[in-house]
Each structure stands twice: as structure tokens, then as C-alpha cells.
Write a structure and sequence with these properties.
The complex is a heterodimer of chains A (about 725) and B (about 150).
Chain A: E1 2-5, H1 24-27, H2 38-42, E2 48-52, E3 55-58, E4 63-67, H3 76-88, E5 95-99, H4 117-144, E6 151-154, E7 157-160, E8 165-168, H5 169-176, E9 184-187, H6 205-210, E10 225-230, E11 237-243, H7 245-248, E12 253-260, E13 278-284, H8 287-296, E14 298-303, H9 310-321, E15 330-332, H10 335-341, E16 344-352, E17 364-369, E18 374-378, H11 383-394, E19 401-405, H12 419-431, E20 435-438, H13 441-446, E21 454-462, E22 468-478, E23 495-503, H14 517-535, H15 539-552, H16 565-578, E24 590-598, E25 601-612, E26 615-626, H17 633-653, E27 658-659, E28 662-663, E29 683-687, H18 702-717
Parallel strand pairs in A: 4-5, 10-20, 18-19, 22-23, 26-29
Antiparallel strand pairs in A: 1-9, 2-3, 3-4, 6-7, 7-8, 10-13, 11-14, 12-13, 15-23, 16-21, 17-18, 17-20, 21-22, 24-25, 25-26, 27-28
Helix pairs in contact in A: 3-4, 4-5, 11-12, 14-18, 15-16, 17-18
Chain B: E1 2-8, E2 11-17, H1 23-30, E3 49-52, E4 55-58, E5 71-73, H2 85-93, H3 102-115, H4 121-128, H5 138-153
Parallel strand pairs in B: 1-5
Antiparallel strand pairs in B: 1-2, 3-4, 3-5
The chains are: A alpha+beta (about 725), B alpha+beta (about 150).
Amino acid sequence: MTLVKTSYNRRSFLKGSALAGGGMLLGFSWLASCKPSPEQIKNLPKEWFNINGFLKIADNGLVTIMSPNPEIGQNVKTAMPMIIAEELDIDWKDVIIEQAPLNTAIFTRQLAGGSQSIRQGWEALRMAGATAKQMLMTAAAAQWQVPVGEIVAKNGILAHEGSNRSAGYGEMASAAATVEVPEEVALKETADFNLIGTDKKNVDGPKIVTGQPLFGLDIAEEGMLTAMIIHPPAFGMQFKEMDASKAKAMPGIKDVFPIEVYPEGVEKQWSDGGGIAKLVAVVGESTWQCMQAKKAVEVQWEEASQAESTGDHNDGLDGKLNLNGVAPAREDGNVASAFKKAAKVIERSYSAPFLAHNTMEPMNFFADVTAEKAILKGPIQTPEFLELTLASVLKMPVEQIDIMMTRMGGGFGRRLYGHFGVEAAVISKKMNAPVKLVYSREDDMTQGTYRPAYKVHYKAGLDENGALIAWHVKGVGTNDDLVFENRFPAGAVDNYLAEKQSFESNVTTGAWRAPRSNFIAGAEQSFMDEVAELAGKDPIAFRLELLERAAKDPVGAIENNDYDAKRYAGVLELVREKANWKPGVKGSSARGVSAYFCHNSYVAQVLDIEMDGDTPVIKKVWCAVDCGIVVNPLSAKNQIEGGIIDGIGHATYSQLTFKDGKPEQQNFDTYSLIRHRQAPKEIATFFVDNGIDPTGLGEPSLPPIIGALANALYQATGQRYYHQPFVSQRQIVG
Amino acid sequence: MTTFEITVNGQTQNVAVDATTPMLWVLRDHLKLVGTKYGCGIAQCGACTVHLGDTAVRSCQLPISAVGDQEITTIEGLSENGDHPVQEAWLEEDVYQCGYCQAGQIMNASAFLKSNPKPTDEEIETAMNGNICRCGTYTRIKKAIKRAATSENS
């Protein structure tokens, strides 16, 4: 049993009603209208008691748990309440889950990003459940006149053996709600978990399969108008003037006007990212009418900065890559002299294009802004930051701004950048009406905030025994510097040099699932495969040798390395066993291996491929994961599978290119995404069971799979794949 | 504006819209049946799939003027209680991540299984190839379709 002080974020455990804005928990009806299951309906409670900001308990024992963080498909809406329910110790079937609105008075870090919701919420969520349980026990002890230490709380029942008394949580909820929040509470030992670690189905599943309103785009409110935007057609262009007379005369159109999204003097947040300062808004009664009217608006655009094409980006990245004398990000030993001494030296370059996020639900947001209040609802990964920007743009205190998060039709980082929420608010204010802003697919794909384009150059040196004695990585990205200098193989090579630079482009970029890792992992792990081959060693054995060195005798101080070499080696060993990997033995399929560390987690993968003519068929992927404790294995595996398919798809098929600042792909007819036929036939996921506190899961399976794919393709075709998308190299077709 | 009489999920309704309006927007904006999703507007992603009679069609490319007296079924009308074998299989396999494309996947899969109750893996992949899932739930979708096919035949 671990005792923890509740002083950490203690305000979260005060009763909602005692807090400013606490009433918000019950104030929204659109999403907060939980739908109890048929069994729960049979047993509708008469009264609910707020125990703390995270949960309330009904007189009949049902428990409503607020899921604090935005749901983007990573399934935190199931997993986060599971953590609370574990410590509260209740039957999962008695739990009703609601999405919490933004409430900075109760919750911390209501953000979906960096695969951190579970990792950073872990302690607070456990305490929320444990505190409530403690308060129930205190209430029971007082009522029964027995010492609290003799009360056992389990599975929704409070019991005192000595006096042979017991009561359901519901019976004590009223009394517990008046108990003072304890100074410290006991947390369960991980061995005593009985909910965490079990498969629980997605709580929104029944709504998803029946098409009930869940997403921002589904919002429909009384008197609501639809709004669309027209943004500049090319990067480097800005609004000059327009003639909207034809559009304004079209049926259902209420108004067409330019909007200043970020007027002079507005305090922007990092989350405003690539938000465009001036746009044209088209407001009407329905989406189709707005779509037609958009085509009739004649907008004049003017040059604000130089138009860039894909050739310019490639030249710019190459220019930076060829620069000498860049200050090293990390340098161990002496790389130059090591390369001179090396028996064998190998150099390779890798590249990847810009990518759009392409969430299936395009950007959208609902806003109802009046002089007194701003009510916003929609899909947003960063509601806290949107609120701050809105306060500045609307010149309104945050207390008058309410933000409700809808389930998101995908995030992948795109909805970290909430400019669309600001746009909706500005349009609503101008129209003096509630509006739902809707981006068309084309608006969405051409807006910007892309995964940067990247290039990286690797050079490695081996001694006469095939030992790696020198490693040089030099990376560059558009508006991003790509290299993680303290990740593997840093710490495992005596002579190591990492250089990184950024090439400034006016094509806006942002975080895209597993930022930077989503390219450099594949490049590094492909290069590692070639280096192992040059050394005449099995690729897994080669990596394990390096990891052993990093664990036992690290180059430089061990704390300089971001990763734990033993956990890294652990996933490689696990995948080697599960995939029955045999050095030098070729089966009927071509195999590739890869491993990577990011978001505090470790992933190793083996991928089997067979060629059907020129088309690669991915027969199976084995994936070993060390992300500490797995809260909900059923959905955790879903995340792993999704990341693998996402990585394979984008590396093989997707790219965004530019001509004179204009994106050349604007919809799914020209921008290819992976489809059913191209997905792996089977994915098998294995978790390391080590009881360590949970780490990231939504991103780590994506980066390494690109290396495993490239390495398997090499085995299958004899060609190395250096440049994404791989289909553009023409040895394979999709 | 023209008034059209259409039958959606067994109910006959009158809608006054421009004749070019795609059924996708008639369903979403006018009939408030928002289970049918907008993804691309050019019949490339399948998120807007509905049944026209027994056939899966992309409602973003189906103008209301082309519907006539053919019956339209959306995800809301696929079953009375959300218990169509395909919906149940989806729940059983816990298919979805974000869930946005899944109504279109389910509508496509249910029409496909009606025409081909015992499909091979390859037939499933081919039939479902027009439906994009950006989260990458393809392997679970295939499992769910196989499960539904088995349950329908048992």
C-alpha cells in the first residue's frame, strides 16, 4: 500500500459545487446527457452526490465518472475512468462516463497530445478514486462507530467484519459527500489491480455503430447558421479584396465578409500555430448552399512572401544539409579521426515529403458569442489554450468563456492548433448568432499546419571486426530540426556526432503523430540494417550488442541518454522470440526488423512481406511494446495496430507537393491514403509486463514500422528504400 | 427550390431544397440524421455511404433529384435497436478508434454481405477498398465482417 499526499492538485478533490465554475459540470446538456445502459435504466437513482470534481455517486450505487481529457480516438474516455474506478473499487458495469468540459479549476492538463494523457493523468486519477473511497470509508466508520482502519471497501461494498455490517457505496454517498477531504490516501499495489489490465470495450461503441451525434460536425442547435471559410489558395498569398455580390444573392446565404481572425495586438498561444490572420467567411442556412456560394465569391489575393514549390523545399533542405561547421547538438569522441581509421564506411541519405493530417472529420467548431458569454463546442486537443486566445480576441475574461469538447473524428496532432475555434467565434460575434464553422475537405487539406518535409544524412564507420566505431547523423526539416541527439545509438558508440538544422519555409507546419520520430525512426532503422549487413551481423544481434554497450558502459554519462538500454533491448528480445526470428534463415516471406524509443515507450517490430508481382503484400507484423502498465489491453492493441497501419500507409503512399505555393493535392483523389487491400493481413501485439507506471501508447508504434517495412522490402526486392513515399521509387506499386 | 418526397428509414418525408443538393447534406442538414458523415465530397472515402434500395452508394454524389421512389437507409435505420449482425460484430471486435468513418464502413459492409454472405478475405478487402479509415482499423474491420458473416449463416 502506498500513501500519497492529496495536496498535489488538492483543488481537484474538492466538491464541484464549492468551486467557481463547478456548476459547469452539470451545465451542458448536449454531450453531458449520458445515456445509461438498459440495466442502469432499470435502476435509476433518485439523487446524485458530488464526491469530488471527478466523480459523483448515486444513492443506488451508480457512479458517474468525468473523463477529463479530449477524446481523439485514443480511447482515453474509457481508460481514464478505468483508473479512477480501480482505486474507488467499484464494478465497471455500475459506471457511467461523461466527457468533462474544460474546467481549469478542477482538472490539470486537459490536453490530448504527446501520448501523455494516461502517463500524466495517472497519479491524479488514482488519487481521485482513492480519495473518494477513503471518504466513503470514513463516513461508514462514523455511522457504525467503528475505527476506519477496520472498514474494507471493495467492489462497491463497504464492510466491517467485527460488527458484521455492510453497506453499498450508494448508501454512504450522502454522508461521504460531507466528509473532509483526507490529507493523505492509500493507493493500491499494482498487484491488487482487478480492473486495470483487463479488456474493456470502448464506452462510445454503441453510439458509434448506430450513428448517434458525437462529433463536432454533428452539432445542430436552435437558430444555428452554417459558416465556411475561404483561405488563400497558396502559401505566400494574403487577402486583398473581394466582390461577393453574386454569392450574397444566392439562396440561403446570409452574409459574406472578410474576417480578422487575429487582429493586431492579440496575444496568440503556441496552439494558434498556422492560423491564417485574414479569411473570407461565407455564412448561410446550410452547408451545401455555403459550398455553392464559396465558388461565386471573387477574391483578389496578393503576394505577401515568395511562392515556394517542392523543388525550392528540396534545394533548401539540401543547402542546409551540405553546410559545414554547424554547431553539434551532441559530440562524443572524435568522429573525423574515427572515420579515417575505420575499415569500412557507409553513407546514406533519406527524405520524406510534407504530409497533411487528414483527420476524417474535417476541421469545424460551434460558437455562440454574445456580449455576455462565449459558448464553444467542438473537436479540440488543446481547449485550455483556445480559451486563452479567445479571451484576447474577444476581449472577454475566461470566466465568460465555456468550452465543451466533442469526440474527435481523428486528431493526429491537427487539432492541437485551434485557429478554427477562433474563426468560429469571430464569425458568430459578427453574425450575432450561433454558427457552426465547417471546413470542406479541400479547405482542410490546403490550410497548412503540415508534417514538415525532412532530409537526413547518415555516415557510419566499422572497424576490422565489424564493430561500430563512428556514427554521424545530420538532419534538417522545414521549420523543424528533426534530430533527437540523445536517443539510440547515442551512448552506444565511442565517436558520435549529431547535427540538426531547420530550413525556414512559409508553408506552415505542426505536430503530426509522433513528431520528427515519424520520419527519423524509419531512416535510422533502415540505415542500421545496412550497417549491420556491412558488418556481416544479424540485425537484431547487432542492435543488442550496441544496447548492451549502452547499458553496461555508456559513452558519456548515462543520464545524457533519453532511453533505458535494458528496456530497449527487452522489446527486441521479445519480438525476436514471438516472431521466431532466426538469424540468416529466410522463410517464404521476406522479413524486416526495426525498434525505436519515443514518448517514453519502447517498440520493436518484425514485418513479413511477400511480393505479388510488383505489389508488396504485408502478411504479418509482430510488435513488442514496453509502455509500462497497460490500462486497457483491448484498446491499447487497437492503438498499436492503428499506428502500424498509419506508418506503413504514409511512408508508402502519401505526399503533399507544392507548385508556386499551392498544394498540388487537395482531396483523396490525388492524395493517397492506405486502404483495406494494402493493410497488413495480421498484426500480433505483445506487451512487456513489468508493472512500471504507464507511458505513451498513441504514437510509439508508428515510427519504427517504416524501418521494418523498408528493411523487408529490401529483402523482397533487393532494393533499398530511401525516399518516401516508397511507391514513387517505382520498384513497387500500391 | 423544389419539394421532393423521399423515403428515408421507412419514413416518407418532404424536403424543399435545390435539386442538385446531395443526399448527404439533405440527411445531415435537413433531416438531422447526422450518422452519415462528410469526409471528402467526391466519393473517394466512403464516410457518407448509405443504402439506396439494397445497394451501398456514396450519398455525397447522389443528388436528391436522382432518388425518386427508391428507399434510402442510413446508419440510424439499419436496425431498430442497433442489433444488426454487422453492428453487433463491430461492438464485439471493438473496431473503432475515432469512430468517424465507421458508419460508412458498416453501411458498406452490410450491403456487401447481403450480396455475398460468405466472402473470402480477398473479397472483403476488395469490397471495402473504397472506405478509408484514417485511424487504421482495417484489420479489425475485416475480423468484424467475418464474424458477422458467420453469425448470419449460423
